[in-house]
Amino acid sequence: MSKTFYITTPIYYPNGEPHLGHAYTTIATDAVARFHRLRDEETFFLTGTDEHGIKIVKTAAEKNVEPKVLADGMVAVFEGFWKEIGISNDDFIRTTQPRHKSSVQEIIRKLLASDDIYAGSYEGWYDEGQEEFVTETEAKAREFKSAISGRPLTRFSEKSYFFRLKKYVPRLLEYIDQNPDFIQPTIRRNEVVSKLKQGVEDLSISRATLKWGIPMPNDPEHVVYVWIDALSNYITALGYGSGDQSLFDKFWPANVHLIGKEILWFHTVYWPAILFSLNLPLPKKVFAHGWWTSGGKKMSKSMGNFIDLVKMREVIGTYSLDALRYYMLRAAPFGSDLDWTDADFLKSFNELKNVVGNCLNRTLKMIDRYRGGVLPARGELQQIDRDLLAQGEKLAALIADAYERVELQQCAELPVQLARLTNGYIDATEPFKLAKDPAQAGRLDTVLNVAARSIHRVLIGLLPILPKKGAEGLSQLQIDVAGKTLDWLYANPPGAGIKLGDAQPLFPNVPPAGAAT
Ligand code: MSP
């Protein structure tokens, strides 16, 4: 193991329970992290919670509890759910942890030492849901409402410390220009560049009227602006600014910050500018994915279309966790907006079941029926065999390339396409007919062997997205995935003469009336 890979999710506000949106980012990140671990890269996957700021204070007040009590309760729900669905994060950072707070103060000290912070006063609009300053022009254009929640913006005026954001804009524009992969997808990159070119003001980075936050080390009457506090998590979790920076030295810069598109500006403007000021390299990629709606509308509790914990658990209970993972990643090209519908979910579930599950199942059943479960050796190959094997050979490189580009829909679909081809191969070679003719015994051996070889590759390709079902399928082929790398797995298909396992359906039988939600 020599290469390292560091990937992060946003840290979520613990003012409510995790829902489909949070699960989407976290599952996508998990799939990418699993792929890199399977490639034997030393992988660090970070997620966590963003616990300061006005949003938490307000929700806590509504519930009549202290902000920390609200956060503690909700963090347990977030962490518990990630464990329940097998998320493979290596750390979980809470911004209320002492390790984070002291590192953030260290970061502010450094910014002060570089003369990038000055005292002033802020007067203007604020979107409390997004914890975002909104300029007069933007506020007017949005009719003084939040672009995300639609709630009225608030106005405040108070003393504040400012970060010299403007100063870093030319350097940032140059960096974006020279590193075309830094902001992905390209449409998001273009949005950031055009907004940057319209001009940027220095950034207010402290709040004097808020007590729930990390005190500014130079002036404890102020707390650090929640976004500066939150963005820092990507390095404070690695021990930056603490006594032990070994993780930071090993993993920074991050390979990918995976985020939703609504928080792109913070990640591609504020965060890089802070990193410039700290003299640190920028993350290699910030990938902004799209937003989920449900049944064509914004998810909302009152509309009854909210895909919340209860609904996700129902879906997992009926269709399996891996069916949910597959649906999410396959639903749209990664980066585009997505819409949850029951019909779409069922279509995706049936694809997995009928294409992948069925391909494995029929292959194993034929080997059992015709060869007593023992994988036969293959004889002379015909063109149709060579074509399928060639598709299988290509799969690993195509998938690796798709993960590199964070094209997660492709990552999900590529192996399934091979399963579809394999089913077509079985239909075309008609092993059930070959089995009736003793003169075709050698040909039948070859067909069974080639089909098993192909489904073996399908299941390996799906492992990062279907960790459980992929492993279950491979174990029916007598392959134990524990501790194996992708290279090993691809290079070690079940050998001829091996007694394969019993054919067990990979996916549950769900009555057609079963609804996805
Ligand atoms: N705390 C900030 C992030 C700080 S990162 C340094 C925050 N938190 S959040 O709880 O609002 O989570 C936002 C993230 O949740 C989005 O960026 C996205 O990853 C995910 N999603 C929340 N709702 C979503 C959808 N409806 N659809 C897709 N993902 C969305 O912002």
- Structural class assignment: alpha/beta
The radius of gyration is 26 Å
CATH topology group of the domain at 342-491:
Isoleucyl-tRNA Synthetase, Domain 1
Q: Which CATH architecture of the domain at 342-491?
A: Orthogonal Bundle
Q: What is the terminal-to-terminal distance?
A: 42 Å
CATH class of the domain at 342-491: Mainly Alpha
Uncertain stretches: none
User: How is the largest sheet built, in terms of strand order?
Assistant: 3-2-1-12-13-7
> How much β-strand is present in the residues?
5-15%
Count the beta strands.
Answer: 15
Helical content (DSSP H or I, runs of 4+): 40-55%
Inertia-based shape: elongated
Helix tally? Answer: 20
CATH superfamily of the domain at 342-491: Isoleucyl-tRNA Synthetase, Domain 1
Largest sheet: 6 strands, parallel
Task: List the bound ligands.
Answer: 5'-O-[(L-methionyl)-sulphamoyl]adenosine
What is the average of the pLDDT values?
96
Walkthrough of the structure:
With 517 residues, the chain is an alpha/beta fold. The protein has a domain at 342-491: Isoleucyl-tRNA Synthetase, Domain 1, CATH 1.10.730. 50% of the residues lie in helices and 14% in strands. The protein has helices spanning 20-38, 54-62, 67-84, 98-113, 136-141, 169-178, 186-197, 226-231, 233-236, 246-251, 264-277, 309-319, 321-330, 342-371, 383-404, 408-429, 431-434, 441-462, 467-476, 486-491, and strands at 4-12, 42-49, 91-94, 117-127, 132-134, 154-163, 183-184, 203-204, 206-207, 215-216, 219-224, 256-260, 286-289, 292-294, 338-340. Strands 3-2-1-12-13-7 form a 6-stranded parallel beta sheet, with helices on both faces. A hairpin with a 4-residue loop joins strand 4 and strand 5. The longest helix is centred in the C-terminal third of the chain and has 30 residues, at 342-371. The radius of gyration is 26 Å and the shape is elongated. Bound molecules: 5'-O-[(L-methionyl)-sulphamoyl]adenosine. 5'-O-[(L-methionyl)-sulphamoyl]adenosine binds at residues 10-13, 21-22, 24-25, 50, 230-231, 233, 259-260, 262-263, 291-292, 299.
